[in-house]
Write a structure and sequence with these properties.
16% helix; alpha/beta; 1460 residues
Amino acid sequence: MAMEDEDKNTAVVATNVRAGIKKGGDVGDNGACIDRQPDTVVHQAGLNPTAGRGSRSGPGAHAATGIRVLKQRNMKRNGSRRCMTRKTRFGSRERDWLKGDTQRGCVCLYGGTVDPQPPAPGPQASSTPQTDLQLVLCSTSTTVEELCAQRDGQGLYVQLHGDLTRRLDPSERPLQMVYDYLASLGYSDPVRVQQEAANSDLSCMIRFYSERPVNADQQERTLLKGVFSVRKGKTQLHKWAERQVLLCGTCLIVASVKDSLTGKMHILPLVGGKVEEVRRRQHCLMFSSAGSQAQTYFVNFDTLADYQRWHRQALKVVSQTVSLVDLSCYSLETVPEYLFYSQDITHLNLRHNFMSLQGPGGLLNLPSVHPKEELQLKKTRIAVQPQALFSQLKSLNLSHNRLGVFPECVCEILTLTELNLSCNSLHTIPVQIGNLQSLQTLSLDGNHLSSLPEELGGLFQLNSLGLSFNNFSHIPAVLERLSAVDKLAMAGNRVETLELCTLIRMSHLKNIDIRLNGLRWVKSENLEAVSQVTQLDIRDNCLDSLDLSSVCNLETLHCQRNQLGTLTLSGFTLRMLHTGSNRLTTVNIYPVPNQLTHMDLSQNLLEYLPDWVCDCRKIEMLDVTHNLLSELPSRLLNSLSLRKLLTGNNRLQRVPDLLDHVPLEALDLQHNKLVELPEGLFYKALNLKYLNVSANALESIPSSSQSEESLSTLQELYLTGNNLNENCGALLVGHQNLRILHIAYNQLLSFPASKLSKLELLEELNLSGNKLKTIPSTVSSCKRLHTLIAHSNHITVFPEILNLPEIKLVDLSCNELTEIQLPDSLPSTLQELDLTGNSSLILEHKTLNLFSHITTLKFDQKSTTTAGDSLNASTPWNHGFSEMSGQRNKLCVSVLAVDRFGDNVEACYGIFDGDRNEEVPRLLQCTMGDVLCEELQHCSVDMVYMCNTFLTSHRKLGMAGQKLGASALLCYIHRETSDPGGYFSLTVANVGTCQAVLCRDGRPVPLSKVYSLENCTEEMERVKLSKAIITEDNKVSGVTCCSRLLGCSYLSPWVLPKPWVHTVPLCPQDEFLVLGNRALFERVSYQEAVCTVQAVQDPRAAAKKLCSLAQSYGCKDNIGALVVSLHIGEDSCTCEPPVSTTEPRGPPPAPVPVSVTPGPSEPVNISSSGGIVTEFSSETSASEVGSEAGSTASDEHPSSGLASRPERRCSLHPATTLCGIMVPGSAGAGTHPGLFQRQPSSATFSSNQSDNGLDSDDEAPLEGVISNGSKLEVEVDIHCCAFQLRSGAPESPKDLDLEKQGSDYLNGKMRRQNSVVVSATNGCLLAVCGREIADLKKSPSTCSLFGKKLSNGSVVVPEDSHNLIEVALEAPKKKSGYFTAPAQQDPEDQLIVPPSLEQEVREQLRSHGPLLSGPSAPSTPTTLKDPVWDHPHPPAFASNLVPGPGPTPILQQEVYDTAL
């Protein structure tokens, strides 16, 4: 039967939609509708009655609605919240109907019951319902009215990003809203939009509900009611009686009737009163009002839960000093009915709701009583006069309510002194505004205003008027009459010309803020002085010259980020001057600004400092970094007021001598051409605490004193990147207060032992990049030392630093260590130990056990050389990376590095910076490689697959991406599909501030685009047009300076995930690629980064040097650097080695793993999320960010009709025809597109307890694991290892043994580098040997830990005899928590072979059947079905090579590392 019959027999359409978006219709031109964009006019999505409607015919067809109703299915989501695939959702008829038109799709409706969840920050925390999920197939023209008529529903609700819930208008079209939302993110292909709209992960961004979601926390904060035993008064004259009791707003309301609110109502104001526990009765509270006429009520509650809930809420009310009711962010459409009883309210906050004007509880009822409420109040015997409600209201906040029009009824509340109507899409202000004669503050920011009524000028008490981010083209003339207003707040408007004569007429304005206006001219028509203006902010405009000499009383000027070439000011009262990031060659100020204390002239074109600078008597801070200065005036350094002087990145060749006792406290001279410092610098500047002279040519440093006794107070000294030798060590002794010493990348052969012992207060020591062979044993005298960085030296003996009580970080990588002498116990403070790059270092098992408590341990894994190493050596690139947390407590930067990606002649590199969060970078690191691999199967157009990779990764962040975000950069090295034998190309995509630079012929070639508001003018304009509020530090809503990020979806449409994509062909002149985060490139220029890497051969050492330099240049933040060395020659052969088609006669030189199909309960996951990953240390619990994350597994499907990606080979070695079972890269008839398919991985982050609630002490010890009670996490760096397969299975047990002997290939031979990182925090322990791997893989959350590097942890060496992998968590039995993301269905067990080879394959499998345990597999089809709707995910090689359910065969141990 046709699908119409199914529709006819189905009475109910899918229901259950959960909390929602706000006016969802305005997704489209203005982007996604969210609570942060209340100013966008409601866009009725799709009022065209015919567009996009699916044509239908036949009996029972709903031709009028175009709705396809699914047959009732069991759509209940189980406890694990696994996502339902399209295959489980739809039958063949539904899929055929969907494929018939891209304007058809699926709307998921959720129920309204919200399960109790740990509250997240904010009044309305996102919770995940576990209710029935029902589906409706409809078209983009289907309206809410039609959907409700079909399912007999009352309405639909929509929620964006887990935020507020809004009722949809009857004419809005849900499916069109989803399509518009996806288009605003960056999707353009209609077929892809249709697929994404049907993805369950999308519910974390946009979700529909069939009824208003019930949030217990919200109900508790807005209204508490119940029937309890009540007694009035403190005496025994009144008896206990059952009464209806309410706690709403600021009052306790007691009815005179038990089960009704009719009759007399007793209202008890609680603000300033008391609520106390009555000890004589169980669960009893005493409520008392304030004042001499105080009344008292006793309420006896039935349960402890009710008692605690009422007590908690009442305490909040009585503790208030004003009668404030805060109902912000509650998705309210009307004022709660019982709030009208609280007539003493003075402050009412209704921001971030969806308040309506009409109806009961609407805004029209705020000033007076609606007839219905008046009748109700009469029944309660309350005498109410017109305008009696909220008669004492002074402050009303209605911002972010998407009102669209000014609520004129508000103008009738004559007691108002403060009114906030920001971000409401207002276009006009009514003349009735003049009625509010008491108004003092009026906020109209973030609207579409272009004029103000004259009546506004009659508000003589108005002293604050906010007009920022509107559409004003000039300063409103009505401001001339508002004499009490002293600040002009007009940032983000369209004022291109500022007439100073206009300001003269507004003599009351003292503070002018017109930043972000596109201001081009500041004109002065006459010579009349503008005497009243004291503060002027004209940042981020388009000025090329500025003359403010007529503003004679100016005290503070901000004019950063213009194009100023000249600047003229009056210096009579000037106190602060900020002119950074311009083109200034000089600054003219007359007279000399004797009141000037702070001046910023950085990033200009100054070749000399004006003379008046030295004459400033009160100058305290001067910043002239990044100019062209060649000398400093002597008078400047000898100023009696200057305390902080920043002169880095200039051309200084000498520093003038100092006079005695100058007050200088901080001096920055980095990146100049200094060869010496003034001899008396340290004993003449006795207050000097900070000195940075990195990146100069110093050969010595001055003495700390003229005598043996030193008075130096120096605390931080940075000497990195000079020509200092070991003689400077003796000169450092006098600085006994030194806490931080960076002397990296000099010429030190040794460090005097006796001198180091004198630096007892030293906390951080960086000796990297010298020629040290040892670190003096006297370092043990530095009892406060917590950081020792000494990588890239020639150190052979491990320093004696493990006895230091406060040591936290030790970096001895890239040295020549051979052994480690350890004490009996290690300090508990040690968190990170880096021993990588020490080729001769061998760690014994005892040593590793002693290191088991260390959060992050990095060392090289030792392994014998196999053919796998020579295979790796053939790649034309290799990489190294470094991550440093700086002075932050956690590392929020993650790196993805895969030298062999896909078919082994490709590579994938990425860097992710979460700024203040570590969750999103770790998620992206674990999943983005998988997503890219799958997108490559969909499309070969670089712009499309890269863009879709970012958008899909954005979706997969799930609930973690609602409030958190990260900058991301992804580089993909590949050959063009159209020319497999041609040269390589590099495709780069990025969002945020992570950057990539290519070294070509020794010159830097930037490849990325910095998406920050300060650096990208077009992005600034886009964000302004969408009416975002940009704070003074250029952050969107005060959250982020980036206009494009992955995550932070609640900031949509201002912050988008669509990346910048750029492809460049690689050539032999390309030497290396440098990837870094914002902190790196803020301190290290592109040119310096290129020169730095050129001087270092090893990519890992080069990356570490970049990070060390950035730290020495003053960076305190997280730093990440990734260096990829390129060796692309004209005669390079980079094709894959041929796969043998005959059985070898002897031991194979490079035994390759044979994939064995596991049993039905043992899915094999192929993970491409490799890269050196760092462990997620659960400083924030799951409930703090959300209880569920989006699927880190990938469920994308290859587009139908897409040709297979051919095997990529060089022009010297064209592709050959290979026979065998699923040879990677073969393109035989009937094979699945792609070189290998991987199943999605899911990220599991550790916490102090395992997900099943057991501590490590509760679990039995596992075989082969050394445990000290801590959780062990070992990371084997597998990356994306494609399967290397022989054409046939071994024919004898001897061959099986030979392959088993090659299992060390799994111990690191297929990795891009031999490193093992092991992690441990307090928690449970799980070890997996070859025998136990099958049980582990049953869990979707633990199987993904294979192939990931976890950055905090302890060590167990993976020996060849064990082949172990320890992971963070046992397979969670409780399917909840932060990363219980929807996972994929288990793959079907089937053979996928070309039809031409089917008979041969069966014969081979039959001949080798006795070697494999388990029954033979059932016959399977050899052709693929429609890949768009039939496959939950692309088929994986591992599950399709050898048939047979049942126990894992003996060869499973060979493939466990690549099968994840």
